[in-house]
Write a structure and sequence with these properties.
Layout (H helix, E strand, L loop, with lengths): L1 E5 L3 H10 L4 E3 L2 H6 L5 H14 L3 E5 L5 H12 L5 E6 L2 H12 L4 E6 L2 H9 L4 E4 L1 H6 L4 H15 L4 E4 L5 H10 L3 E4 L1 H6 L4 H14 L4
Parallel strand pairs: 1-2, 1-8, 2-3, 3-4, 4-5, 5-6, 6-7, 7-8
Helix pairs in contact: 4-5, 6-8, 8-9
Bound molecules: SN-glycerol-3-phosphate.
The site of SN-glycerol-3-phosphate has 9 residues, from helix 7.
Length: 217
Amino acid sequence: MKFFLDTANLDQIKEAHDLGVLDGITTNPSLMAKEGIKGHDAVMGHYKTICEIVDGDVSAEVISVDLATMIEEGKALSAIHPNIVVKVPMTRDGVKAMKWFTDNGIRTNCTLVFSAGQAILAAKAGAAYVSPFIGRIDDTGWDGVQLIEQIAKIYSVQGFETQILAASIRNSNHIVQCAEAGANVCTTPLAPLLGLLNHPLTDIGLAKFIEDAKKFK
Ligand code: G3P
C-alpha cells in the first residue's frame, strides 16, 4: 500500500518526505484554502512546488462543476507537471469529464465517493484512482473501512484497474485497517502517519537496551 499525504502544507510535506516513505500527495480546495493560497497563479505555483518536493502523484482538484470548464481546468492542471492527477468530483458531469480525460491521456482521481456504485462508475470512466472518504462515512454512523473492503472485492472480481485511494483518514488505526481491507493507497494527514511509529513497548525496550549498552561500552 502506498502512503500519500493529504495536505497542501509544505512543511508537513517536507517532514513526511524526509521520513522516506512518502509516495504522493492529495489536496482539495479546503486544504489549499487552509494554507492561505490565493489567486490562479499562486495555486498553480503551489502545485508545482509540491511536485518538485515529492517524486510521486499529486492530486489537484478542479473547482468547477460543469463539464466544459472542468475539462479546461483539468487540461491546465495536468500541464503543470507529469505527476499531476486531476481530481474530479463524483457527479454526472464529473463522470463525463473523467471519461474525456481518460480518452485524452490525462489521469484522474475520482473524489467524494461514498458508495460501491459510485466506485464502479469511477472505474468505468477510467479513473486512475477512486477516493472513498472513510472518516466522513464513520461520522454518519456507517463503517468506512467496510466500503474499502467492498470496493476491493468488486474491483478484483471485475478486473478493474482503478486504484483504491482511501481518504478522509482520522487515525493510525484507519491506515492499518485500510491496508488489511485492500486499499492500494492511503492518503492521510501527517499525525496518523507519524502515529504508526508509536508503541509503549518500543519506548520501554529501547530505554532498557540503551541502559544495558552502557555496561559494555
Ligand atoms: O482529501 C479528501 C479527504 O481526505 C478529506 O478528508 O478529513 O476532510 O474528511 P476530511
